[in-house]
Design a protein that fits this description.
CATH topology: Heat Shock Protein 90
Radius of gyration: 37 Å
Shape: elongated
Largest sheet: 5 strands, antiparallel
Structural class: alpha+beta
Number of domains: 1
CATH superfamily: Histidine kinase-like ATPase, C-terminal domain
Helix content: 40-55%
Strand order of the largest sheet: 1-2-3-5-4
Order of helices and strands: HEHHHHEEHEEEEH
Strand content: 5-15%
Number of strands: 7
Length: about 325
């Protein structure tokens, strides 16, 4: 159990600070971004409407996400998520008649386990990137302000990230739903949608650690209850089953089922690729054989032509000899 690995005393909050960009680095900001920053300051427009992703800050965001990815994966590998749990999930899925065509072998279990780990951490990375970029573009609107926060895995095995900016704050309820047909062309709100899509809880606040006004974002991934928590079916979940039988299901079972489908899809792609290569090999062989046959026919034809030429040459030579002899001895041949 996660609690056997992580205790309250073992929980370690890891703080982070992104920025600020130092004044000395301003001269290295690309010209178009500097102009955009000036527009944001002068006109008060949103950072999303003018690209202000300064390379130094975006690189720092990327480095932090990579750091958190490694940390979360190590925590999961330390006992929060095990191959045995994935193996048991595969058995449950097979018992429900939903694991068609995939054998339950050790290497397959390991493959499923790695895919589940990667999918969980990928979802966290996407949500984190959206939150941090939102802090830059919509919160601070300025690379010379910091983005601060911390991340940790609690004693129950759940992942947390908490971050804040120094902006003016916002009202989440006022953000238009980007899935609404009337708002499909509006870029705002998509980041919030992805945060809620990939994390289990997302909470927005209006103050940072020092009491300043800004936006704080607390997101959790309930990695510690994957084998206990039930989830509902996605709208297009498991289309091969037709009707969504067996839902809701355990959170881990959904991850495992998606991983199993991924393995089967990859196998089919590999089979299709192998079939394509084999078809190309056969086609190339047939072309080579056809070319070889045509070449042999040409050679035979040329050889025939050469034989006729040699025969004609010999005949002409004989006639020439006879003519010369007759010229020298007119009585010859009478």
């Amino acid at each position: 159990m996660p609690g056997e690995v992580y205790t309250e005393s073992a929980v370690e909050e890891r703080p982070f600070v992104i920025g600020p960009l130092s004044p000395e680095e301003e001269e290295f900001i690309p010209e178009y971004i500097r102009k955009n920053l000036q527009r944001v300051r002068d006109e008060g427009i949103d950072g999303n409407d003018a690209n202000i992703k300064v390379p130094g800050i975006t690189a720092a965001i990327g480095a932090l996400i990579t750091e958190i990815d490694g940390y979360l994966k190590r925590c999961l590998l330390s006992g929060i998520l095990t191959q045995r749990q994935c193996s048991d999930a595969m058995e449950r899925i097979a018992a429900a008649g939903r694991g068609k065509g995939l054998e339950h072998e050790p290497e397959v279990v390991t493959n499923v386990y790695e895919r589940v780990l990667n999918k969980i951490t990928m979802e966290v990375k996407i949500a984190l990137e959206e939150a941090l970029v939102n802090h830059l573009e919509h919160g601070n609107k300025d690379p010379f302000k910091t983005i601060e926060g911390k991340y940790w895995v609690d004693s129950d095995g759940h992942f947390h990230s908490w971050s804040f900016d120094h902006g003016d704050g916002f009202e989440p309820a006022a953000i238009a739903d980007p899935t609404d047909s009337d708002h499909l062309e509006i870029p705002n709100g998509r980041g919030l949608l992805l945060e809620k899509m990939f994390m289990d809880t997302v909470e927005y606040g209006s103050q940072g650690t020092s009491g300043q006004i800004g936006t704080s974002v607390h997101m959790t991934k309930l990695t510690g209850t994957l084998t206990q928590r039930m989830v509902e079916a996605d709208e297009d979940d498991d289309p091969e089953d037709g009707e969504k039988n067996g839902f809701p299901e355990l959170a881990l079972d959904r991850y495992v089922r998606h991983a199993m489908h991924g393995i089967l899809d990859d196998r089919q792609k590999n089979q299709d690729a192998d079939a394509k290569k084999e078809a190309e090999r056969v086609k190339n062989k047939q072309l080579r054989e056809a070319w070889f046959g045509a070449k042999q026919k040409l050679i035979t034809w040329l050889e025939g032509k050469w034989t006729v030429r040699e025969h004609l040459s010999a005949t002409v030579a004989n006639i020439g000899k006879r003519v010369r002899r007759k010229t020298k001895d007119p009585k010859h041949g009478e």
